[in-house]
Amino acid sequence: MKKVIQYAAVALMFVIAGSQAVMSQGSKATTVSPKEFQAQWAKYDGFLMDIRTPEEYMAASITRAKLCSFTDPNFEAILDMLDKGTTIYMYDQDGKNSAKAAEMMAKKGFTKVVILQGGLDAWKKAGLEIKNMKK
């Protein structure tokens, strides 16, 4: 009986480890520095998504970014309208919500998501250009 329990415990560990590996493989999100984010966006294009609030977006954003607020109750419906095969370049204010949004996107079948490490705060600190709509 003791050996059966040991075998079951080992088998359970393999199942858990395997499911975690599959989950991490399912998420194709990569997090890159502001300079790398800018370089990839310039080279490969794709869809640039600002997931901050409308107020934050109006204060400052990266040129050509489209607002798809993570706090919008329709965020998942917005994701459903996007091409899952297109590279999505995503950022928030400080990098905290991007991982949650990327996880949601992976579950919906997005295969290429690039996250701006540190969000717009890091972008500004790197001295990269922003667009200010409040003049």
Number of DSSP strands?
5
Radius of gyration: 19 Å
Question: What gross morphology would you assign?
Answer: globular
Instruction: Report helical residue fraction.
Output: 40-55%
N-to-C order of helices and strands: HEHEHEHEHEH
Low-confidence stretches: 3-25
Beta-strand residue fraction: 5-15%
Quick summary:
With 135 residues, the chain is α/β, with parallel strands linked by helices. The protein has 6 helices and 5 strands.
Structure, explained:
The chain is 49% helix and 13% strand. With 135 residues, the chain is α/β, with parallel strands linked by helices. It has a five-stranded parallel β-sheet with strand order 1-5-4-2-3. The chain is globular. The termini are far apart.
Q: How do the strands and helices of this protein lay out in sequence?
A:
Elements lengths: L1 H25 L2 E4 L1 H11 L2 E4 L3 H6 L6 E2 L7 H7 L6 E4 L6 H10 L5 E4 L2 H7 L10
Parallel strand pairs: 1-5, 2-3, 2-4, 4-5
